[in-house]
Design goal:
Blueprint (H helix, E strand, L loop, with lengths): L3 E2 L10 H7 L1 H4 L10 H21 L6 E4 L2 H13 L9 E5 L4 H12 L3 E5 L9 H7 L4 E5 L13 H10 L3 E5 L11 H4 L3 E5 L10 E5 L25 H40 L3 E3 L10 E6 L4 H6 L4 E2 L15 H6 L3 H5 L1 E5 L6 H19 L1
Parallel strand pairs: 1-11, 3-4, 3-5, 5-6, 6-7
Antiparallel strand pairs: 2-8, 7-8, 9-10, 10-12
Helix pairs in contact: 1-9, 3-9, 4-5, 6-7, 9-13
């Protein structure tokens, strides 16, 4: 029997049409996009087509898309680019949440070491960062707030538009790390009212090693890579044409079937949740159950034993005890700590995330295996 892949929040497989779109640029169209000859122009045109495809998914102008090497680079460019625009002497204050991915938390810590002010706001017991908490953290020198759109572990969706209104009333920019939400739910930048938004290609059936940053027109950034001036001077270096083409195709796929995909993912996730709940009852809890969540994400706390042990007893299932970045860490992740989980709950956490290629049969098999493992540990 094939492996049961329930780790779509860690990474997704490359969609077949994405692979096909990339193939010509691995061999036939190999020109440098900055070259003026025909091969160079072909690469540049492909990049601009991809820029338009991603802009269409996000609801922005193509000129507002900057291609990067990954979601982490996009986050670094957003945070460092805003804070360092006036140089270290200009100071400035940044607000993030306690449940951010390390791709936000670590750049924030770096900026703090340089002398910039950083404030961290908590989430409530349902995994939601309250707009009022953000408002209280703002200072006269605050220049940027960065709150994730959807949590990578619990799937809880944050009230970004409400936070944006508070920020803009104080002339503060808002960035959101949307690596987990783009391609799963609607992420229109005008509806969210954000100034900057990060995208990771491999979270949306594109290749690893490519990302993007939406930069609203009029927002200025200090580049973190200096060189030849590619990407409107914001990201120097010869563009990764092949992977950018893959990201563009992935964005086009997501645009075509977003509503249908969201409905199907919700049905599958709810089926898995129901099967586990029926069998285990109060021997499991669900993180963010009362909050709006990504349609594909189920974060469960099994109380019969450690999540690692449960997954070790179900080798057919590819899943995680938290986010991929914290899996195996042996300590509570920021998301777990923010939810106020007990030691037993945190120890038994397993994140199950479904995707395009998950079937009802996969759901039923996985549920049976997990239930059997819990019963064995209980005995």
């Amino acid at each position: 029997m094939r492996q049961l892949y329930f780790d779509y929040n860690a990474t997704t497989p490359v969609a077949p049409s994405v692979h096909e779109a990339m193939r010509p640029f691995l061999a036939e169209y190999y020109g440098n996009p900055s070259s003026s000859h025909s091969l160079g122009r072909a690469s540049q045109e492909a990049i601009e087509d991809s820029r338009s495809q991603l802009a269409g998914l996000l609801g922005c102008d193509r000129e507002e898309i900057v291609f990067t090497g990954c979601g982490t680079e996009s986050n670094n460019l957003a945070l460092k680019g805003v804070l360092m625009l006036g140089g270290a002497a200009a100071a400035g204050h940044l607000v993030i949440s306690a449940i951010e991915h390390p791709a936000i938390a670590e750049p924030a810590a770096y900026l703090e070491r340089l002398g910039f002010g950083v404030s961290v706001v908590p989430c409530d017991r349902h995994g939601v960062v309250q707009p009022e908490a953000v408002e209280k953290a703002l200072r006269v020198d605050t220049v940027l707030v960065s709150i994730m759109h959807a949590n990578n572990e619990t799937g809880v969706i944050q009230p970004i538009r409400e936070i944006a209104e508070i920020c803009h009333e104080q002339d503060v920019l808002l960035h959101t790390d949307a690596a987990q939400s783009v391609g799963k739910i609607r992420t229109n930048v005008d509806e969210l009212n954000v100034d900057l938004l990060s995208v990771a290609g491999h979270k949306m059936y594109g290749p690893k090693g490519v990302g993007a940053l939406f930069v609203r027109r009029g927002v200025s950034l200090e580049p973190i890579l200096h060189g030849g001036g590619q990407e409107s001077g914001l990201r120097a270096g010869t563009e990764n044409t092949t992977h950018i083409v893959g990201l563009g195709q992935a964005a086009q796929l997501a645009s075509k079937g977003l509503d249908e995909t969201q409905e199907r993912m919700t049905t599958l996730r709810n089926r898995l949740q129901s099967l586990l709940k029926q069998a285990l009852g109060d021997r499991m809890t669900i993180n963010g159950e009362r909050s709006e969540r990504l349609p594909n994400t189920l974060s469960v706390n099994f109380l019969d034993g450690p999540g690692r042990e449960i997954l070790a007893r179900t080798p057919e299932i590819c899943a995680a005890t938290g986010s991929a970045c914290h899996s195996g860490a042996g300590t509570q992740s920021p998301s777990q700590a923010g939810l106020g989980l007990t030691a037993d709950e945190a120890r038994g956490t397993v994140r199950l995330s479904v995707g395009w290629y998950t079937s009802e049969e996969d759901i039923d098999r996985a549920a049976n295996l997990l239930i059997t493992a819990c019963e064995a540990l209980r005995d």
